[in-house]
Amino acid sequence: MSRVLLLLGLLGLSTLSARAQQVRVGVGVSIEPLANFVSSVPDDPSAFSLFAPSLYVPVTVGPFRLEPELSLVRDAASLNDETESSSRLRLGVGLFYYNQHRDMAALYVGARLGLVRTVIDRVFLDETATRLDYVFAPTLGGEHYVGDLSLGVESQLQYSQIGNFFEGGDTSRSQLLVRALLFVRYHF
């Protein structure tokens, strides 16, 4: 029995090893076209950047895709010598089972994890507030290839644990929302 399991394990590893030799790296960008119509966090001055365009680096190895994500948005407003600025940095990674059909289309399913750091600076009050949010999003997506370029769509059911702007704050917020993203990726 142990020999059969060992043989099956070696066969599985050799199959995975053969597929793992097919490494494809790319670069991509996403936008969320519906984000401006839906307020995700009521009364949050930094909500403008929650759905900022993001930069991705898809690394596809056999049937799996690892996709780091980076997004940075900064906004400033001034009224009567009162200046307020907000910035949001989003760092994340997605891990997916990736199934490519011929050379034209692919589907993927998995999840994205991320951290979102928000800083609000109110110069007129000499006040700076920082918050850290945690994001988990089960994800389903697909893309269509035109040569090395792919156009894709992605749907996420995103859960966010929203941090506090003030240390020692005892309020805890979370949110659950559906996101729809459009992607353009170039694969080397």
Q: How many distinct helices?
A: 1
Give the number of DSSP strands.
Answer: 9
Largest sheet: 9 strands, antiparallel
| Uncertain runs | 38-43
Computed Rg: 21 Å
Structural class, from secondary structure content? mainly beta
Write down the overall geometry: elongated
Percentage of residues in DSSP E strands: over 45%
Q: Span between N and C termini?
A: 44 Å
The secondary-structure element order is HEEEEEEEEE
Helix content bin: 10-25%
What does this structure look like?
With 188 residues, the protein is mainly beta. The chain has one helix and nine strands; from the N terminus they run αβββββββββ. Strands 1, 2, 3, 4, 5, 6, 7, 8 and 9 form a nine-stranded antiparallel beta sheet that branches. The longest helix is centred in the N-terminal third of the chain and has 19 residues, at 2-20. The model is unreliable at 38-43 (pLDDT under 50).
List keywords for this structure.
188 residues, mainly beta, elongated
Which SSEs are present, and which pair or pack?
Layout: H1 2-20, E1 23-31, E2 54-56, E3 59-61, E4 64-79, E5 82-101, E6 105-122, E7 127-146, E8 149-162, E9 173-187
Antiparallel strand pairs: 1-2, 1-3, 1-9, 2-4, 3-4, 4-5, 5-6, 6-7, 7-8, 8-9
State the gist of this model:
The protein has one helix spanning 2-20, and strands spanning 23-31, 54-56, 59-61, 64-79, 82-101, 105-122, 127-146, 149-162, 173-187. With 188 residues, the chain is mainly beta.
